[in-house]
Specification:
Blueprint lengths: L2 H17 L3 H5 L2 E8 L15 E3 H15 E14 L2 E12 L5 E13 L2 E9 L1 H7 L2
Parallel strand pairs: 1-6
Antiparallel strand pairs: 1-2, 3-4, 4-5, 5-6
Length: 137
């Protein structure tokens, strides 16, 4: 297998683990010193408290915990995956419900993963936070 195939498989494993609620397996795919941000935005919103830079597996675990407490993800689908060397870019869409309001949301996103030695060293997620904000109200 090529490095691109290996890294693409790690991303697919990440989505499969997250989709099954297996956060422990998802965390094992990250480097101990991972840089992680979701969503990348210059405008922090009080409803979207998980939107901040995180460093290391413990802080990524906090992200998953905080996100899960506020959101019920119902679908997270990859629509395109592009691998180039130590980087994988993924386009997709997800759908879910804001737990506090019961309102549904759906949005498209792009995630960029960087790798070293088969582990995710950087993960940044870009999506329109307006979709989520509307579901909080």
């Amino acid at each position: 297998m090529t490095v691109e195939q290996d890294n693409s498989n790690v991303v697919k494993e990440l989505f499969a683990a997250f989709g099954c609620g297996d956060i422990k397996s998802a965390l094992n795919l990250f480097d101990d010193n991972v840089e992680f941000q979701s969503p990348v935005t210059r405008h922090a919103l009080p409803e979207i408290t998980w939107s901040k830079m995180r460093h290391g597996k413990a802080e990524v675990a906090e992200f998953y915990s905080e996100l899960g407490a506020k959101m019920q993800t119902e679908a997270m689908n990859i629509t395109r995956l592009i691998a180039d060397g130590e980087h994988v870019v993924v386009e997709g869409m997800n759908r879910g419900t804001v737990r506090s309001t019961g309102s549904k949301y759906e949005h498209d996103w792009v995630m960029i993963f960087s790798f070293r030695n088969g582990k995710i060293t950087r993960s940044v997620h870009y999506y329109d936070t307006a979709d989520l904000l509307a579901a909080f109200h």
